[in-house]
Design a protein that fits this description.
The complex is a heterodimer of chains A (461) and B (74).
Chain A: H1 11-14, H2 18-39, H3 41-49, H4 71-80, E1 97-100, E2 111-114, H5 116-121, H6 127-131, E3 140-142, H7 151-162, H8 174-184, E4 188-190, H9 193-205, H10 210-213, E5 219-222, H11 229-239, E6 242-248, E7 256-259, E8 266-267, E9 270-271, E10 273-276, E11 281-286, E12 299-306, E13 317-326, E14 339-341, E15 346-347, E16 352-354, E17 357-359, H12 361-368, E18 374-383, E19 389-397, H13 407-422, E20 426-432, E21 449-451, H14 453-460
Parallel strand pairs in A: 3-4, 4-5, 5-6, 18-21, 19-20
Antiparallel strand pairs in A: 1-2, 6-7, 7-10, 8-9, 10-14, 11-12, 12-13, 13-14, 13-15, 16-17, 18-19
Chain B: H1 3-25, H2 35-52, H3 61-67
Classes of the chains: A alpha+beta (461), B mainly alpha (74).
């Protein structure tokens, strides 16, 4: 047993030693593999082709003998056996809920089915809110509308397993949300970073700063986007509440599988880690080229295996999410659950090569959003008249501030810092914030970058 | 696991068993309209077992089959 936690969500789980956690994972992994080898055609055929007998998986390290699975393989299976694919692995009548990946037009959405037991396992999403300090009689306001994303099952069931969610605001505009929040009160809040910023700005514009308007607010949980340290510090000051982060994806039961503990997203200006919910999911952080585990502090790709899931399970699924691995020993809370660094999760797929330089959008997010006058941005990469890459960045400036003389030095500083960090010169163009798309729900994943170079090449040939 | 936790797990397992029986009570056509909610009670109790003693928690797939009127394993 370990000493943990002012606010354990589930004491029996959170006080396990590292050895106990790993023993549990191995037992549940073997149970899952044994079931899937006989009941799940998708995995059974892959493992057969790879020449792996799952009864020979005798340690957690042995999992690396199993082949990894990609999004493309999952989608191909869905096309071959619609709508769920052979990966479903249960009677279709046992499908209780679905999660659809956000997808984009022209691309297929992944379908993740859940049995009723899976659906209730998704309540572990609530752990993030308990660790953020939520108690059973306290109210949370959830700034996302209901859809087939994670907003559907995990948020509602998870929040209500820990505290109260008596009214909904995600379907409303920001002014109406603020009115309901004042009318019914709140102790905690969940919002995407962009919504958090937008709501705080609206409070300021209405002459009633957020921290004065909602004095009972104690914690805010965010997810869905990377963030710069300065953004979190600014939002904690604006709202007068500590900010915590959770991470989930369509492939992770559709809900959180890691989050900050009581320490929050930041401690003294330093990023904390998000603890994995390792009792239900096995997370590997691997070098995307070699598929070998990365060392503490290194960046790798998150690969996930469901230990408990009945329907649409995943075993060694490559998320393409780029994370920085942190061992559990780096957190003082006492939970022996490994972590990844908060606020720096990005996509391997998102990396762009501009003028020969590797540019990661999350790195650019960090630089841009550290500036309070900038609410949003969009980048268009294209081939200019001189036949060279051009990176044009439209900068969204809050209403009424576009002509403010104080904006020019902000842009100058931004241009210099972007060049220093990426070795690419961005052409900056200030525009009214409302001219740019706003990303305030998990269904509207930020798509701030457009690469038109292939089309340009086609036209210039 | 202390004695209190062990008792909680035993009680929850009994809820799973009883909810499974209730889910089957309406037969294949679910004349009593009980099946889905009783199955959900069983699933909720099963996941509460998992929170207290994860090794004691089991798949519910046989329970779903039985609730539909099919024998386990078919």
């Amino acid at each position: 047993m370990t000493t943990v936690a002012r606010t354990p969500a589930h004491p029996a789980l959170e006080r396990m030693t590292r050895q106990e956690i790993q023993a549990l994972q191995l037992e549940r992994l073997q149970r899952q593999l044994s079931r899937l080898a006989t009941t799940n055609p998708f995995f059974a055929s892959r493992w057969r082709q790879a020449g792996v007998d799952v009864s020979e998986i005798r340690s957690l390290d042995d999992i690396r003998r199993l082949p990894v699975v990609t999004k493309e393989e999952v989608l191909a299976d869905q096309v071959a056996a619609p709508p769920y694919g052979t990966r479903l692995g249960v009677d279709p009548r046992d499908v209780f809920e679905l999660t659809l990946s956000s997808g984009t037009s022209g691309k297929l959405q992944e379908v993740h089915a859940h049995t009723v037991r899976d659906a209730h396992m998704r309540a572990m999403h609530g752990i993030a809110f308990r660790w953020a300090g939520m108690g059973p009689d306290e109210t949370l306001v959830f700034h996302v509308g209901i859809s087939n994303s994670a907003s559907h099952g995990p948020f509602h069931r998870g929040i209500r397993s820990i505290g109260r969610l008596p009214y909904l605001v995600g379907h409303l505009g920001f002014p109406q949300r603020l009115e309901l929040m004042e009318r019914f009160g709140l102790d905690h809040m969940y919002a995407m970073p962009s919504a958090l910023n937008g709501l705080a700005q609206l409070c300021d514009e209405q002459g009633r700063p957020a921290r004065e308007r909602f004095p009972d607010l104690r914690s805010i949980v965010i997810s869905g986007e990377g963030w710069p340290v300065a953004f979190i510090e600014r939002m904690e000051e604006a709202w007068g509440a500590r900010i915590h982060e959770g991470y989930g994806a369509s492939q992770t039961y559709g809900g959180f599988v890691m989050s900050n503990c009581e320490q929050g997203a930041l401690s003294a200006g330093k990023r904390n880690g998000m603890h994995f919910y390792e009792w239900a999911i096995l997370l590997e952080v691997l070098d995307p080229e070699t598929l070998e585990p990365v060392a503490p502090g290194e960046v790798g790709e998150l690969v996930i295996t469901h230990l408990e899931k009945e329907a649409s399970p995943l075993v060694r699924f490559r998320t393409r999410d780029r994370v920085r691995y942190m061992p559990w020993t780096e957190c003082p809370c006492g939970r022996q659950l490994d972590m990844v660094e908060s606020g720096t999760i990005g996509r391997w797929d998102d990396m762009l090569k501009i003028k020969g330089q590797n540019v990661f959008p999350t790195e650019v997010d960090e630089i841009v959003f550290a500036r309070s006058r900038i609410g949003e941005y969009q980048v268009r990469v294209f081939i200019g008249d001189a036949g060279r890459d051009v990176a044009e960045m439209r900068i969204g400036i809050a209403q009424g501030q576009a002509d403010d003389p104080a904006v020019a030095p902000v842009l100058d500083g931004l241009r210099r810092e972007l060049k220093a960090a990426t070795n690419v010169s961005f052409e900056l163009q200030p525009v009214p914030l409302n001219d740019l798309p706003q990303y305030t729900t998990p269904d509207a994943k930020p798509r701030r970058w457009t690469d038109e170079r292939q089309a340009d090449l086609g036209r210039k040939e | 696991m202390d004695a209190r936790d062990q008792q909680v797990v035993r009680d929850l397992k009994e809820i799973v068993r009883l909810a499974g029986e209730i889910a089957q009570a309406g037969g294949p056509e679910d004349e009593l309209g009980l099946r889905n909610r009783a199955t959900e009670i069983a699933a909720m109790a099963e996941t509460l077992v998992w929170l207290v003693d994860p090794r004691a928690s089991e798949w519910n797939l046989d329970l779903y089959r039985a609730a539909r009127g099919a024998s386990p394993g078919t």
